[in-house]
Amino acid sequence: MNLDHLRYFIVLTQEMHYTRAADRLNISQSGLSHAIAALEKELGVPLFQRQGRGITPSPYGAVLLPQAEQIVTAADSCLRSFQLMREGGGILRLRTIPLLIIPTVTTLCRRFKEANPECDFTFSTGMSSQVCQSVKEGTADIGFCSKLTEDPSLEYAPIQKRRMVAAVPLGHPLAQQKTVSVQDTLPYPHVTYSWLSGQRDPVDRLFAPVRDQWNIAYEVEDANFIMELVAQGFGITVMLDTPPVHRQDIHLLPLSDDHTESCFYIARRKEPHPLTSVDRFFTFCVQESPL
Known about the structure:
By secondary structure, the protein is of the alpha/beta class. The protein has ten helices and eleven strands.
């Protein structure tokens, strides 16, 4: 199937007029007509039908349109990827936990792209275990996570530390204090991460000495969900100081306990990557780290 014919078909469905579509494509009207006719002959069905002075996609054309757009988009992406590779760049596939998107990952990507315009990114999100698995399987080139997977094929480097804070509803008794300890929070029901989240580990380590007194009322996977439950009075929480905790309907309190910091990491496969820009980006992120 000719890619140019598919491109012509997509433009013609947008313009609904042969003359306008040909002008937009910078080809002759007869050339456009021959291309569409060849595509219809290959598929064995009419793709357009007359409507007044213009045309409209036939039922077959309506079915072809989303598939044609997908094919052309994939082809353009492949072409761009290899063009960037020839220029020493490439498209880096990143997967990150949502907590690091704003502003850590986006800022690092912007700065790297400013210095390396031949590089670009695709983005996806997941929990730490999913991030590490994607890097291991090669469906992501770089990962950003909070929990390490013990795997000899992966390499990690810390890029950020954040402190624990307590978050309580406005008007809560603890909101009158300047700081709180873990012990201070024990009389109240807690909302915390479920075990599926890598963010549960640092909280669990903090409460390990008083686990039998830790009153967990609700466990959820998402930080924004936790904060909404806190704001609505379902409980209080202790978690890392990340963007979701900064809300006007939540009161934040520093923790006075020791060892209330936790790290976030960048991950890559240890084996050499065919895109040299992957290793450059990994090194760049580590060097930009405040640690």
